[in-house]
Amino acid sequence: MYAKLISASVLGVNGTLIEVEVDIAGGLPQVNVVGLPDPAIRESVERVRAAIKNCGFKFPLQRITVNLAPADLRKEGTAFDLAIAAGVLIASGQVAAERCHGALMIGELALNGDIKAIPGVLPMVEQAKRCGLSRVLLAAANLEEAALIDGLELLSLHSLRELAEQIDPQELHGRSSRTRHGPARLTGAAGGQVAGGAADFADVLGQHQAKQALLTAVAGRHNLLLCGSPGTGKSMLIQRIPSIMPPLSDEEALEVTKIYSVAGKFAHGEAQLIRSRPFRAPHHTISTGGLIGGGSTPRPGEVTLAHHGVLFLDELPEFSRQVLEALRQPVEERAVTIARARATLCFPASFMLACAMNPCPCGFYGADGERQCSCSISRMASYRARLSGPLLDRIDVQLEVPRPASFLQTERGLDSAQMLERVMAAQERQLARRKRSGVSWNSELIGAALLREAKLQPPAARMLEMAYQALGLSLRAHDRLLRLGRTIADLQEQEEIGEEHIAEAIQYRCLDRNTQPL
After folding, report:
1. What is the maximum span of the chain, computed from C-alpha positions, in angstroms?
2. What pLDDT, on the 0 to 100 scale, is given for residue 88?
3. Global pTM?
């Protein structure tokens, strides 16, 4: 007696189909699960046994072998429970094989036979469609999430006993299944509008240069570092970045939603893709694995959860040196590769890095006020040494945020709606160049595409060369100034980069202009 069904697992942030084979033969009653299962899958034997009995079926008192193929791929999670139970029932003749034929089966079983929701449904269902499957049997709580992938017939099950119920197909289609065609609905703000309730830049008094720097950083998705004394508004400014970021495209929204589905952070019952860009702000005590991703079978970290969004590191020098150095590859390559003995996986990590820090341990070095810095030179040097030169070299916008002189006559300046309008206009110019450059953001321009799209006027080229020599810039910093100038020119609707654009870009590299602690 033999049965074969199709289930799925998650590898990185992508789904992979797994064949579940069940064979029932004579011999001593026992159940063996083979095919590199993890402890959660081995424990599924007891869940399946209890669920089958509590749903009124008979668990075969024979030798049962369950094989998960391909056998050389490590499997983990509870998504195989439903397929294993169905395989046992089909192989023992208690359920007709036609009911599950050619369908993806995913779901966790409770001891009473109820089918529970699982994480990672979206990439599993997407892979099923890619492989030509047309039906999916899954938990009712996962139905809305799976419906984000169009062109599939989705059958939701509340209990294992529903596999044996004889229901009219028309009644079944109307009661517990769904077939969706067309684009998924999207959550979040509509294009060109600030999300309701979001923090607004109008709340920030003064800091006009900082606002302009943030506008430039967001328009080209450049990495950002704000440095200043406590209470100058560094965190307040960065926390308002989401209010001026353009909404996710359909393709980006699907990628982000898949990541949050795998991480178990997608709310069950949602029928919409994530539309707003992620904003992740981990605490400075986070580990390297928590930031980059890790585990025996690698799982996504904060850099992947911030994909197509913002990763905010407040109090940057307080993070572990090892954690910060691990950021160098993801920031440069916009992806992170994690190698383990069992698997080597690549996770997407295309994010805007936003950081905030104090100039010294006490926070008042160079402050304009009565408070004076109490840090020794050696203490300040030790504080700054926590940030390596290669990491700082990868941050395009480095700006000092001064203490406002007065609040009585301080203008509020641009609000988020006005800034978002300018960002959207700059993005349209970048998208118009995408067919030639192959990238969507100025910060991604490299090599020949950078030289072709970032055309310098002669005075601008001379100024950039002078800055390169006088400041001792690296080649990486030189290219980042060029990309930054391209974004500034886009904001001013200029085709070529002028001298004033390069001058403004140089003003945003304060760590290059200072040889001493800020």
Report:
1. 89
2. 96
3. 0.87
